[in-house]
Amino acid sequence: MVRVLAALLALAALLLAAxxxxxxxxxxxxxxxxxxxxxxxxxxxxxxxxxxxxxWHAHTYVTDxxxxxxxYDEKDDTCETVFLATHPNYRAIDKYDCARLGESHRAGDLxxxxxxxxxxxxxPPPPAVQLEARVERITPGPYTTGDKLSVVGAVRDxxxxxxxxxxxxxxxxxxxxxxxxxxxxxxxxxxxxxEFVLPSTDQARIEFIPDKPPLxxxxxLRAAASEAQSLKVELCGFRARLVQPAVxxxxxxxxxxxxxxxxxxxxxxVPVQGAPAGLSLTFTVQVEGESAQTLVADQExxxxxxxxxxxxxxxxxxxxxxxxxxxVVCPAGEVTTTVSDLGLGFDTSELPGTCYVGxxxxxxxxxxxxxxxxxxxxxxxxxxxxxxxxxxxxDTGEERYSGPPRTDDRYEFLATYDKPKSxxxxxxxxxxxxxxxxxxxxxxxxPQLKLEVPAELDFGTVRAGTSVTEACQRLDxxxxxGAEEHFLALRVEGLGNxxxxxxxxxxxxxxxxxxxxxxxxxxxxxxxxxxxxxxxICLEVPRxxxxxxxxxxxxxxxxxxPEFKAQEKTVRLRWKVEGRGFLGCHGAWVWxxxxxxxxxxxxxxxxxxARFPPGASIRVAGSERGIRQASAIxxxxxxxxxxxxxxxxxxxxxxxxxxxxxxxxxxxxxxxxRGAGVVLTGTGPLDQQDRRTLKWEPVADLxxxxxxxxxxxxxxxxxxxxxxx
Length: 725
Known about the structure:
By secondary structure, the chain is mainly beta.
């Protein structure tokens, strides 16, 4: 900052000593700027300089070959007719060409400031200023889910002066905390406006988040977002529609005006006959530049309002809403009228905001008179028939028409410009009561679009399953002219049965990587960054299958500006997807699945085999009488009684009465089972004693596995035993 101030003071001395560079009566200012066009903070647009000029606008960018500056004039072409004419080392340059230079500009650097042909000393450094984002206006309520509302946001300094910004976003948050961002559009006055549909909720909050403007020394932005505005969302029982005055009607200042409404059903379609009991309506009136005021309607659903003094025409917005008991009456839209002392207004809806070099630039201003026949209309008619009234049509300081008022009240501007510039159109009625002026209408004259793109995008050979961000090609617009300021529709066609899909890869509003489909069903609008005139077109490929792009696969680039739709370009798309084998394609899940299966098999091998019940035991003796004195032996306590890998627990009973895990040459094998607990197997012989007759009988099912009874005595050769479970 210190260096900027020092340079500013040094420049002041130079300017004071410099000879007059402008013609007498000519005014302009040339200086540096910070930021990227068109969102800049310009030295010539600082408050201290702007307050010296009644009319002030950025006319054109200029360069001396070393850097860019921005030239302001009083909407009279002085930047071209004087500054450029007397400074041959400077030439006009397009703002986007300046953006591509990528240089560091100087918002504190004044090249020249001339008023009426005399150089002006630079103003002192500005005091500290705090900027604040605000939600300026929301469509008046009451509100209900599904209503389409308009909202206006702005950035102002601590004195309320409006600060121009490049754009902004409105964040709508419902009662559950879910947010939706709606991008706004910059208006001619520097505010940002947007429309949105009220979500299903009982409460909504609206914040305005401006694109951060370049800040001058000493300037700060109080917060990144405005203070949130809360809306109560209720169930709409009726709709109220303003029927008087009508849309576009001009109202006379100081003259009492009747405001009248009609009640409709909740859908706003069927009129309600008779006023419901408890009906209470309120009119909301907001005149441009003034605070909103409310008027309570009478039993006839009307109210009287007197428009304020307005030497020059101003817009007034009127809506009506209220309640019927517990139910709300929602407005059925707003009506925009014009207020002026004489009852005259200007309809500028037919004027363009942008025109193009070499193409006819035309628009019509319609003069609005009071609708109703009466004293006001007669007074206006008489005024416009007065021979002393003259109408002047001025285009950036040049008079295009001067003469009596036209009987059809229509005034057409028509011009063809040979270079980019900011044109300013105005219509002035010179009357005995003083001039009546239409607000200045700015027209940006831009170069014609010249669209040049590659004839082909070849993605080459791509392996199936490749990430979408690894198969991209740049759609290059660097050989185009003006492409950065036009919306372009990108549509992919002719894909047939292909599984591959070209998509647009970009950074979204949250600065996160995102993709957008380019199928014909959904046009994609892409606004190019003037510093990088390229778009990333990426290929979403199949996971496994291979394919080759069809000959019909193309990307169509269609300008959405009507004047240049004929410049549609077709880009051939080529690619080959190399397929993968079964394991290469499905290995990501096959190998883990096999590993999991193997683990399961291993786990089952140890957990599935049967084990001896905890209380199972056996008594073994060498005689029938000895079995009574034999001690019980727990099967789980015997050596080798544990289960093996996919092998049930088993023990061998040998001829000498020993019981262990060796089953080879055993007389009887005891095997654990899940169902029976223990079964006896072997080659025999094995006998069992009948408990009633005490006779020995052979066990017939030994080979298949005999389930022992706890009270039965068994004999295998000279070994006697009982199994107890």
